[in-house]
Design goal:
- With 170 residues, this protein is an alpha+beta fold.
- The chain is built from six helices and nine strands; from the N terminus they run αβαβαβββαββααββ.
- The protein has a domain of 114 residues: Beta Polymerase, domain 2 (2-Layer Sandwich).
- 35% of the residues lie in helices and 21% in strands.
- Strands 1-2-5-4-3 form a five-stranded mixed β-sheet. The protein has a two-stranded antiparallel sheet with strand order 6-7. Strands 8-9 form a two-stranded antiparallel sheet.
- A hairpin with a 2-residue loop joins strand 6 and strand 7.
- This is Nucleotidyltransferase family protein.
- InterPro entries: NT_sf.
C-alpha cells in the first residue's frame, strides 16, 4: 500500500493539500514538519514530487489517524523504513507518520528545529542529505547528485550536537 513512486505531482498542488489539512482538519503547523523531498522541491532541486511526507505529533497526529478512513483518504499502512503507522491522505499524495527514518531523527527534534518557510515547518536540507545518505536507494543517490551539483562550494558538516548543518568550506 506504499506510495506509487511513478506518480509525479506539481509541488504547488501538494502544498495546497497540506494547507487544506491545516484549514479543514486543524493540523497545527507547530506540530508537524514536511520531511523528505518536499524541501528539495521548494529549493528547486527536484521538479516534481511523488508525495509529501509529514512527521506529526500530538493532536495533529491524532487528527491524521481519525481522518485516515474518510472517503477522501486511503487508510494506514506500516512504513517501509520504520514499521511505524503511516496515514495516507488525498489519494496517497500526503503521507503522515509519527516518526522518521532511523533513531537519528527524533520527531520532536525534527519539528522543533525545522526551518519555517511560508508558515510551514520544513526539514533542513542537511537533514534531507543525512537521511538520503542513510537509505541510499537509487532515488536517494539521484537526489544527492542533484544536491551536490546545486550546492557546489558548500559542504555538509557535523556539529557537536550531531545535527547536520551546511557550511562554506575553509
Amino acid at each position: 500500500m506504499a506510495v506509487d513512486r511513478s506518480a509525479a505531482y506539481d509541488g504547488v498542488l501538494l502544498y495546497k493539500l497540506v494547507w487544506r489539512l491545516v484549514r479543514d482538519h486543524r493540523f497545527d503547523p507547530n506540530d508537524f514538519v514536511l520531511v523528505g523531498s518536499a524541501r528539495l522541491w521548494l529549493e528547486g532541486i527536484v521538479g516534481r514530487l511523488a508525495d509529501i511526507d509529514i512527521v506529526a505529533r500530538n493532536e495533529t497526529w491524532e487528527r491524521a489517524q481519525k481522518i485516515a478512513h474518510n472517503y477522501l483518504h486511503n487508510g494506514t499502512y506500516s512504513g517501509e523504513n520504520t514499521g511505524a503507522p503511516v496515514v495516507q491522505l488525498y489519494g496517497k499524495r500526503i503521507d503522515v507518520c509519527p516518526s522518521w527514518v532511523g533513531d537519528r531523527f527524533d520527531a520532536d527534534e525534527l519539528i522543533d528545529h525545522a526551518d519555517v518557510i511560508s508558515g510551514l515547518r520544513h526539514m533542513s536540507v542537511a537533514d534531507v542529505v543525512a537521511y538520503k545518505r542513510k537509505l541510499g536507494r537509487p532515488k536517494d543517490r539521484q537526489d544527492l547528485a542533484r544536491i551536490r551539483s546545486r550546492t557546489a562550494g558548500l559542504a555538509i558538516t557535523e556539529l557537536p550536537d550531531r545535527r547536520p548543518a551546511l557550511s562554506v568550506p575553509g
